Amino acid sequence: MQIYWTKINKIIEETPEVRTYMLEVPEGFIWEEGSHTHFGLEGFNAGDKPNKSLVRHLSISTLPYENAIGITTRIKEQCSEFKSILRNLKVGDKVAIFKTHSNVPLKRENKNVYLLSSGVGLATFRPLVLEYFERADNVNQVHSLNIDSSKDFLFTNIFKSTPDKKFAAQFVDNRKEYYEVVKTLATDKEGIFYVVGSDDFLVQNIEVLREQGIQPEQIMLDKRENQLPNFLSSNFTV
Q1: Would you say the C-alpha torsion 183, 198, 16, 63 has a positive or negative sign?
Q2: Which CATH architecture has domain 111-232?
Q3: What whole-number distance in Å separates Cα of residue 142 and Cα of residue 136?
Q4: Pairing mode, if any, of strands 55-59 and 35-40?
Q5: pTM here?
Q6: How confident is the model at residue 237 (pLDDT cuts 50, 70, 90)?
Q7: Residue in 208, 220, 148 with CA at minimum distance from that of residue 181
C-alpha cells in the first residue's frame, strides 16, 4: 500500500461548518470522479498498528484538471478527535492519503441520472457534475437533489439549474419535501439513481425508490461491492 504524504495548499470555508482542504497533488497520484480516499493525520501510522481514530474515509470533491485534491467535510463545534485536529491544521501542514478508489463513476448508458444527497454528501457529486459538463456523452440529463436542514447549501455556483446543459439542481431543507421529490423523480423507471449520505439516509432512500419500482441495479451507492447486497436487500436495516 502506497501512502502519499502531501501538504495543505488552501483551506476554503464553504459554510460556517463546512471546509474544503485543497491538497497538493503528489507525483503519481491519480483519481477519477466519484473517488474516495483514506485521509490520515500525522501520527496515524507511528505505532505498530495504525491509529484508526486518526483516519477517515472521505470523498474527493475535485477533478484532476483542477490541479488539487479537494477534501470537503463538515466540522461541528462538538466533534471527534479527528475533526478537532483537522480543524486546527493550517496551510503547509501535511496529511496522508491512501487507498483511493471510485465506487460511483458517472454511468454513460443513455439514461437520465439522478443524484440524491444529504448535506456534505454533495461533495461526492461535485466531480460527477463537472465531468458531465466536460463530456455529456451517453448521458441524457442530470438532476441533483440535496437536503440540508442548515440551509447552508454547498457549491451553489456549480449546482444551479442549467437547461442548455440538461442539468437541474434542487435544494430542500426538510424530509417531507425531499421524499416527495424523490417519488416524483422515481416515475422515471429507467433512470439511474445515485445516493450519498449516512447509512440511515441510504436505507430510507432505497426503501422509497424500491417502493416506486426502481430496481437494485439502478441504485448506485458509494459502498464497496461486497457491502451492496446488504443495503440493497429488501430486509436490511441499520
Answers
A1: negative
A2: 3-Layer(aba) Sandwich (3.40)
A3: 10
A4: antiparallel
A5: 0.92
A6: very low
A7: 208
